[in-house]
Amino acid sequence: DAGVTQSPTHLIKTRGQHVTLRCSPISGHKSVSWYQQVLGQGPQFIFQYYEKEERGRGNFPDRFSARQFPNYSSELNVNALLLGDSALYLCASSLGSLSGGEETQYFGPGTRLLVL
Amino acid sequence: LAKTTQPISMDSYEGQEVNITCSHNNIATNDYITWYQQFPSQGPRFIIQGYKTKVTNEVASLFIPADRKSSTLSLPRVSLSDTAVYYCLVPYSGAGSYQLTFGKGTKLSVIP
Description:
The complex is a heterodimer.
Chain A lengths: L4 E3 L2 E4 L5 E6 L6 E7 L6 E7 L2 E5 L6 E5 L5 E5 L8 E8 L11 E2 L3 E5 L1
Parallel strand pairs in A: 2-11
Antiparallel strand pairs in A: 1-3, 3-8, 4-5, 4-9, 5-6, 7-8, 9-10, 9-11
Chain B lengths: L8 E5 L4 E6 L9 E6 L6 E6 L2 E4 L4 E4 L5 E6 L8 E6 L16 E6 L1
Parallel strand pairs in B: 1-9
Antiparallel strand pairs in B: 2-7, 3-4, 3-8, 5-6, 6-7, 8-9
């Protein structure tokens, strides 16, 4: 079975530009979450989507937005890029059934974004 | 959100068993404990998850005492390829969302 896939793998942008990152979840998974990981730190939660609805949002500015499509794939958009947005952006998928705390998230390989 | 505390780093020789202990003093009744492994520039890889007592799979064991305020990840006979950062997490599953709050993890270095 294919795991979580993300595209592109690497991206270079300049300050002020906009970026769109894409994620395809594991087949059968209905929930997608996005995380940002700055070098040397653990991943930080940005968004979670389930059945095309936003289910959770982390402490990130409004420049960050996301959406989920009917096929459960997802896009993360970041506007007005700042140097500090340089990071590894991770997508994780899960069943989304929220069976207590037993839900398990599976991560993709990430997209490495460099903002110059 | 249940916070977790784990050692920043550990060293081990190849072939030894490694135990990484995590404390989560304010874990809630319904919370599970989850461990991930991460290599540089890769996404975290799910290792094991448990609620109480002992859970074992093909790569690790997870020991959780009765009070559930701590847990220990046990990696049998580590090899150089086990050098990675290991994260202990108590996922937040309230208010309609499911979130993983990562700390800095434990950097395990396996020495030949």
